[in-house]
Amino acid sequence: MPLQQSMFLDFLRPDQLLLNEPMMNHTTFRIGGPADLLALPESGEEIEAALSVCKRIEVAHLVIGNGSNLLFSDKGFRGVVIKISKGMSKMEVHEDEIVSQPGALLSATAAKALEEGLCGLEFASGIPGTLGGGVFMNAGAYGGELKDAFACAKVILPDGTLRIFLPQDMEFSYRKSAVQHNGGVLTEITLKLKPGDFREIKGKMDDFNSRRREKQPLELPSAGSTFKRPEGYFAGKLIMDSGLRGFSVGGAQISEKHCGFVVNKSGATCEDVLKLIEHVQTAVMKNFGVMLEPEVKIIPEKCACRG
Ligand SMILES: Cc1cc2nc3c(=O)[nH]c(=O)nc-3n(C[C@H](O)[C@H](O)[C@H](O)COP(=O)(O)OP(=O)(O)OC[C@H]3O[C@@H](n4cnc5c(N)ncnc54)[C@H](O)[C@@H]3O)c2cc1C
After folding, report:
1. Do the Cβ atoms of 39 and 8 come closer than 8 Å?
2. What global pTM score does this model have?
């Protein structure tokens, strides 16, 4: 039976359910065909309800945040994409802790920390994802990672139970966390920060952000660093040293400004990006014997459950 809005209307309003919604409108890469249904929950209960309907009617689902680390297929996604973003971005500050819904942008969370004179989130102020996506990915930059500020989170597990995850449950490592393999959905996150000096915190954020603007191709759509950092190397340098600066396939290009980024120069398709990734992997393997592993999550049109 085709997916219908009505299957979710006991829990979500019609304006929270978009049929055949192009995923290029929900990713920073600006790539991706239509998802059968895009759901925009505004509370943990609504996420839980959307997940349980998907389970009951046996359709695939995928939870996304700001879509800043995703590459959707040109054919889109067969199933329900549950986008946790603006509608779930409330934050509260209790002394040195920020308790936040997962859809809050990392930039907004870092700005809140600054406003409250709390340090420890400066590194995250220029990462264009949500807090949920950031914790899921253990996003990091300039020597900091989300794991350093993580205190606890509410997580809905695939069997529908709600659990509190503490740092020791999260199995954080480089761009990895336990929710990547246990199928959990983060519905609330608590960060523990430290009291700091407003001017020092702001100075660090300004410095990191100007370094970002100087080095990264922020003027073009991308999903950030395309490849994970291989141990002992930098992906961008290996790609540059393979002579691939500016190399393109269709509308996808190795950024002229930073070889670690594949950018959507003009109307790139998912196929263009995948061919470019494969070309880069082959060249770097041939030249340096290093296998580059994508950091960007490639979402097939049909997937078993979630990315
Ligand atoms: C210009 C640019 C610069 C970037 N710089 C950095 C950087 O410096 N450091 C860095 O680490 N990354 C960087 N990134 C990549 C990206 O911003 C991060 O990976 C970010 O954490 C992804 O967050 P998101 O909300 O966009 O998640 P999405 O891309 O929407 O999703 C990423 C993954 O998280 C999962 N997910 C999202 N929300 C939840 C939730 N509530 N519960 C469970 N799972 C969830 C999704 O299923 C998906 O598998 C950059 C990207 C861009 C475009």
Report:
1. yes
2. 0.97
Candidate of 127, 179, 298 to mutate for ligand 1, largest count of ligand atoms within 8 Å of Cβ? 127
Give the class (CATH, top level) of 217-299.
alpha beta
pLDDT at residue 225, rounded to an integer: 97
Neighbours of 250 (CB within 10 A): 16
The verdict on whether 85 is a catalytic residue reads no
Residues of the chain with pLDDT under 50: 306-307
175 is an active site residue: yes
CATH of 5-86, one of 3.40.50.300, 3.40.50.360, 3.30.43.10, 3.40.50.1820: 3.30.43.10
How many angstroms is it from 286 CA to the middle of ligand 1? 30
**Contact 136/183 with Cβ under 8 angstroms?**
no
CA distance 149 to 135: 10
Kindly report the CATH class assigned to 89-202.
alpha beta
Q: Is the CB of 24 under 6 A from ligand 1?
A: no
